[in-house]
């Protein structure tokens, strides 16, 4: 080895202890806050004041808290949907479309039977339709992947645009309310999710779902199969697992949960359907899933964090006249730092000198 | 872990202290200043929203002169859905005495919030659901913009006729291109009145309308304007939120009539004039009524040119046809004294025939008008039974290029 060693070198960390992991994360979070503060200064706001009203607006009053929970609900639900796929290393980027199609399925019943059925019948039926539509939307790319080995990342991504286009067509076509308005009428009360503590009961459903998903991923045969398949397809095959079946089953489950989220958003939050029903949740949930390292319990925390930032951002806009895009930048910085710090948890940077020392050993 | 939590706790405490301190500062002046909310579909980039800011500022000033101090709180870029509900909740929660929503699509979400805040008045501007529902604190308003459109159409027609007279174009080349938002009564009413205004002074004019399927999308608007010019339009007008139709017209060397704001600053060689709703009167009326403990009318209608709720921006006299200003004054007077009706049924036909019957309102919720005969005394009475436009006839002389977009 005559070549000069590089100035910086990376090495995988072995056995980093928990305390250091959390120290690194805290440092990352702190760095993000400082960087965010700089952005506030550039935008002409006092950073302490800005962070203060961000927290005040989101956690400091009941209306803000309700909003935080309302925003966190679909994020958490969708992150839960994505977790088994990602664990399996099946890159489902199609949650956005699956949510949208779930909302379409649910809305079909809401618009057709809102007058005639009572909510005890209608709401569960809508939920089931949501699950079926979302599941099918996810099942199509999964079936192609299993049968023809197509790339699921591209396939699921493209399916998003088709789903959003379908709603656009429904809005201007068969389901349009006032001619030319491109707006679907509001659901009748029977098709609207009831509220508990001021937020639609979707938040309770996703909390229950979190517990179920935690058990499913960690303590069931299905969860084990997913984990093995994610580590190595060949291992799974040697172990006698039916790879096709596991892939399709997991994709259906994932799409089904996303579809259920679509139902909750349409029925609980919007009370109608429009093309941006998913509103980017399908993509943000990918971040939630990874930040929490696919741990369902961690997702609760992360989705709440994002919801606080999002709610706080709108408060900043109204109280300090900080543009919402500034808050988006800060959210981006926080997410980048949080995801980025995982790199430092897994790897250490070694400078040239220390490398030589190590080399002598 | 513990350290992390400790740090987090400290941060939270610091922030909440900061937040408390800030609150105290705010309380002091609260006594004398009323907060008023404004939920905007767009932001500074949209001419549509800028028209509202102008009115907000003017209303604030007028109210201050009357001893009523207000503070506007804005939210931006939320066209519909839950985001709008959140804005309304936020603003009402902050203690706003009124929350204005400036776009059609926002009303359903606004209506979900209104019952929780009975002390706040929610206004669905340019919509029609709030006036009809059972809620006392939700109201509608839509000044009669079709009158302004007609007047702006007269300015356009005069220009086209001048071009014909000067032999710059042939008679049948007087084609107006119109960038429309949706195939929606408000838009149909708008382009039809504009067209009728133009035809009243330029008999050979025809019009092509192309829809963009959005209230505002600068790129789409520009492309659509260009397409209309490529199809032979020599004058562009618009029912869309941005100024790109004006700039496109200028770079293609054709003329333009705008909407919402004066567009002659971005297209000085093209934009003749704009019609706009001046919301100042209405805002002053609402806020003053609330402050004085009165009840705001459920709907605000039959307010237009005569009352100053609809106006034209300054005429771009450098490029307008000769005598335009005088003619506009004359037409305005005729409209005010009732000798001229915009939708005079003897002035237009549908499928070659004069229209005798057309309903104004929908009562059974199927979105097809089924009650209140709008045609009487020789004209279609637009915005007579409610403020939101309901003229939906497809008259001859106007070609819709993409009714199903």
* Radius of gyration of chain A, CA atoms, in whole angstroms: 23 Å
Structural class of chain B: alpha/beta
* Low-pLDDT stretches of chain A: none
**Helix content range of the residues of chain B, please?**
25-40%
Strand content of chain A: under 5%
Helical region count of chain A? 14
Shape of chain B: globular
Tell me the number of strands of chain A: 4
DSSP strand content of chain B? 15-25%
Largest interface: A-B, 49 and 51 residues
Count of discrete alpha- or pi-helical segments spanning 4 or more residues of chain B:
11
Structural class of chain A: mainly alpha
Tags for this model:
heterodimer, A: 361 residues, mainly alpha, two-stranded antiparallel sheet, 14 helices, 4 strands, 73% helix, B: 405 residues, alpha/beta, Rossmann fold, 2 domains, seven-stranded mixed beta sheet, globular
Task: Describe the protein in words.
- The complex is a heterodimer of chains A (361) and B (405).
- A two-stranded antiparallel sheet of chain A has the order 1-4. In chain A, strands 2-3 form a two-stranded antiparallel ribbon.
- Chain A is 73% helix and 4% strand.
- Chain A is globular.
- With 361 residues, chain A is mainly α.
- Chain A has a domain at 74-304.
- Chain A has helices spanning 18-42, 47-59, 62-87, 95-113, 119-148, 152-172, 202-219, 221-231, 233-238, 243-270, 281-291, 296-319, 324-346, 352-360; strands spanning 8-12, 195-196, 199-200, 347-351.
- In chain A, a hairpin with a 2-residue loop joins strand 2 (195-196) and strand 3.
- Chain B has helices at residues 2-30, 47-65, 81-93, 107-113, 129-132, 145-165, 185-199, 218-230, 244-252, 280-291, 324-337; strands at 33-39, 69-75, 98-101, 121-125, 138-141, 175-180, 206-211, 235-238, 255-259, 271-277, 310-312, 359-361, 371-373, 375-376, 379-380, 398-400.
- Chain B is an alpha/beta fold and 405 residues long.
- Chain B is built from eleven helices and 16 strands.
- Chain B has two domains: 33-141, Response regulator (Rossmann fold), CATH 3.40.50.2300; 145-276 and 312-400, Rossmann fold (3-Layer(aba) Sandwich), CATH 3.40.50.2300.
- Classes of the chains: A mainly alpha (361), B alpha/beta (405).
- The interface between A and B is large, with 49 and 51 residues.
């Amino acid at each position: 080895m005559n070549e000069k060693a590089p100035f910086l070198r990376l090495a995988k960390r072995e056995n980093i202890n928990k305390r250091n992991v959390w120290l690194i994360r805290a440092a990352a979070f702190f760095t993000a806050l400082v960087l965010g503060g700089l952005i506030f200064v550039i935008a002409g706001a006092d950073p302490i004041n800005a962070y203060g009203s961000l927290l005040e607006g989101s956690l400091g009053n009941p209306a803000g808290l309700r909003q935080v929970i309302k925003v966190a609900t679909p994020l958490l639900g969708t992150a839960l949907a994505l977790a088994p796929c990602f664990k399996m290393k099946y890159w489902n980027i199609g949650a956005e479309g699956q949510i949208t199609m779930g909302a379409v399925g649910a809305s079909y019943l809401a618009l057709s039977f809102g007058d005639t059925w009572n909510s005890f019948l209608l709401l569960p039926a809508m939920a089931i339709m949501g699950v079926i539509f979302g599941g099918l939307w996810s099942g199509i790319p999964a079936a192609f992947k299993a049968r023809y080995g197509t790339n699921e990342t591209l396939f699921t991504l493209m399916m998003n645009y088709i789903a959003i286009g379908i709603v656009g067509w429904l809005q201007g076509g068969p389901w349009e309310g006032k001619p030319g308005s491109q707006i679907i009428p509001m659901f009748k009360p029977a098709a609207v999710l009831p509220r508990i503590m001021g937020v639609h009961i979707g938040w309770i459903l996703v909390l229950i779902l979190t517990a179920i998903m935690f058990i499913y991923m960690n303590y069931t045969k299905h969860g084990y199969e997913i984990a093995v398949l994610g580590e190595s397809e060949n291992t799974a095959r040697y172990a006698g697992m039916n790879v096709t079946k596991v892939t399709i089953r997991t994709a259906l489950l994932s799409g089904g949960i996303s579809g259920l989220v679509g139902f909750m958003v349409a029925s609980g939050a919007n009370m109608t359907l429009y093309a941006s029903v998913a509103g980017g949740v399908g993509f943000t949930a990918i971040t939630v899933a990874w930040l929490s390292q696919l741990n369902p319990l961690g997702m609760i925390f992360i989705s709440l964090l994002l919801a606080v930032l999002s709610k706080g951002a709108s408060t900043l806009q109204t109280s300090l006249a900080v543009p919402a895009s500034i808050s988006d930048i800060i959210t981006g910085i926080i997410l980048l730092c949080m995801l980025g710090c995982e790199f430092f948890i897994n790897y250490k940077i070694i400078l040239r000198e220390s490398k030589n020392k190590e080399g002598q050993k | 872990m513990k350290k992390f939590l400790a740090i987090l706790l400290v941060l939270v405490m610091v922030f909440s202290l900061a937040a408390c301190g800030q609150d105290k500062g705010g309380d002091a002046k609260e006594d004398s200043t009323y907060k008023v909310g404004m939920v905007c579909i767009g932001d500074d980039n949209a001419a549509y929203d800028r028209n509202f800011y102008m009115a907000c500022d003017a209303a604030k000033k007028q109210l201050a002169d009357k001893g009523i101090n207000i503070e506007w709180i804005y939210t931006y870029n939320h066209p519909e859905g839950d985001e709008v509900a959140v804005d309304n909740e936020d603003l009402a929660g902050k203690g706003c005495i009124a929350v204005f929503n400036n776009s059609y699509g926002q009303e359903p979400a606004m209506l979900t919030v209104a019952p929780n805040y009975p002390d706040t008045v929610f206004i669905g501007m340019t919509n029609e659901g709030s006036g009809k529902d059972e809620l006392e604190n939700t109201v509608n308003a839509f000044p009669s913009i079709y009158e302004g459109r007609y007047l702006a159409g007269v300015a356009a027609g005069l220009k086209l006729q001048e071009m014909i007279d000067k032999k710059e174009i042939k008679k049948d080349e007087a084609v107006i291109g119109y960038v429309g938002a949706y195939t929606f009564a408000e838009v149909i009413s708008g382009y039809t009145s504009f067209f009728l205004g133009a035809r009243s002074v330029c008999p050979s004019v025809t019009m092509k309308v192309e829809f963009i399927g959005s209230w505002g999308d600068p790129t789409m608007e520009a492309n659509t304007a260009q397409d209309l010019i490529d199809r032979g339009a020599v004058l562009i007008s618009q029912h869309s939120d941005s100024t790109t139709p004006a700039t496109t017209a200028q770079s293609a060397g054709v003329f333009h009539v705008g909407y919402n704001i004066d567009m002659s600053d971005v297209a000085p060689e093209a934009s003749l004039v704009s019609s706009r709703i001046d919301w100042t009167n209405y805002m002053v009326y609402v806020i003053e009524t609330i402050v004085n403990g009165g009840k705001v009318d459920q709907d605000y209608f039959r307010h237009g040119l005569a009352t100053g709720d609809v106006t034209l921006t300054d005429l771009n006299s450098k490029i307008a046809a000769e005598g335009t200003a005088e003619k506009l004054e004359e037409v305005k007077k005729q409209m005010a004294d009732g000798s001229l009706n915009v939708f005079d049924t003897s002035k237009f036909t549908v499928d070659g025939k004069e229209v005798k019957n057309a309903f104004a309102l929908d009562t059974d919720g199927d979105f097809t008008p089924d009650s209140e005969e709008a045609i009487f005394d020789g004209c279609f009475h637009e915005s007579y039974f409610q403020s939101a436009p309901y003229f939906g006839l497809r008259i001859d002389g106007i070609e819709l290029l993409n009714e199903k977009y």
